[in-house]
Write a structure and sequence with these properties.
- There is one protein chain.
- Helices cover 36% and strands 21% of the residues.
- The protein is α/β, with parallel strands linked by helices.
- The protein has a single domain, classed as 3-Layer(aba) Sandwich (Rossmann fold), CATH 3.40.50.
- Strands 1, 2, 3, 4, 5, 6, 7 and 8 form an eight-stranded mixed β-sheet that branches.
- The radius of gyration is 22 Å and the shape is globular.
């Protein structure tokens, strides 16, 4: 399926290399939330891949003493991480199997056409018992903007073009990890609420972050002049400020390894569910 225009994604991220300082606090907060999961393991990592970390993730990993290679579809953004860095497309990873024991993909997988295929490539690039940490926007992200744009464009022209990226649902994420062959998959969500004194600043921030529309079927025609003013005026307000929601999905999964807990084989249980329920009822 060709959902996203990857050439447009690269152009947007090239441009963001010059402008993302405007949203550095939000990107840093998202990266820190993801890397907090490292505190839940005693595993020591010796070779990490920072995939699409925009020059933010690699220094955070280095501060933890983890040697890291940074990669991004945009050479300009890859270079922001400092050496070593390389340009690489997450849809066609150039790394040999078992190259890393940690892969971190902070807000870099949501413009992927074949997300299951990309996750399989990431799992293959991990060594046995290697860890994947990934975050991506979930369904509900920019929901206020999506609704306002759709309603405003429908009122102006009788139809609406796709202007906000489609996002996956949380319940699908753990299943995608499992389908890609990861062990112990976990997916959870955190809501980050952003408040803007000026609604137009939301659009400026999306552009600065390289997150403008890259849907393959996006309209190439200039939008109606009144579209964005009407949509911005219709955005939800809180205490006189415009609300924008980032629903952040955080995914963790391990490459299969010999030391991991394994599920019991069917039929190997030594106690029945009926006995367990009877014992519980006898205690009540």
């Amino acid at each position: 399926m060709h959902v996203f225009d990857r050439a447009a994604v690269r152009r947007h991220r090239d441009r963001a290399a010059l402008t993302q300082a405007r949203v550095a606090d939000v990107l840093h907060d998202a990266a820190a939330r993801l890397l907090d999961r490292l505190d839940d393991t005693t595993r020591r990592f010796t070779a990490a891949l920072d995939l699409g970390g925009r020059g933010i993730v690699a220094p955070l990993l280095a501060a933890r003493g983890i040697p890291t290679l940074a990669a991004d579809i945009s050479p300009a953004l890859a270079a922001r991480a400092g050496a070593p860095a390389t340009a690489a497309d997450a849809e066609f990873l150039p790394f040999a199997p078992a190259s890393f024991d940690l892969i971190v993909a902070s807000l870099s997988l949501h413009w992927i056409n074949d997300l299951p295929g990309a996750l399989i490539q990431l799992r293959l690039a991990l060594r046995p018992d290697g860890l994947l940490l990934a975050s991506l926007p979930l369904l509900g992200t920019l929901g206020e903007l999506r609704l306002a744009l759709t309603e405003a464009e429908a009122a102006l022209s009788g139809g609406a073009a796709p202007r906000v990226s489609p996002f996956p649902d949380l319940r699908d994420c753990a299943a995608l990890l499992q389908r890609a062959g990861f062990a112990l998959p976990v997916a959870d969500a955190e809501d980050v609420r952003l408040l803007y004194a000026r609604p137009l600043d939301l659009l400026h921030d999306l552009r600065a972050a390289g997150e403008t529309n890259a849907v393959a079927l996006r309209s190439r025609r200039a939008p109606p002049r009144a579209l964005f003013p009407a949509a911005l005026a219709g955005l939800r307000q809180q205490d006189g400020r415009t609300v924008a929601t980032l629903r952040l999905g955080i995914l963790t999964g391990w490459a299969p390894g010999p030391g991991q807990p394994q599920p019991l084989k069917p039929g190997s249980a030594t106690h029945s569910l009926a006995d367990a329920l009877a014992a519980r009822d006898g205690q009540t």
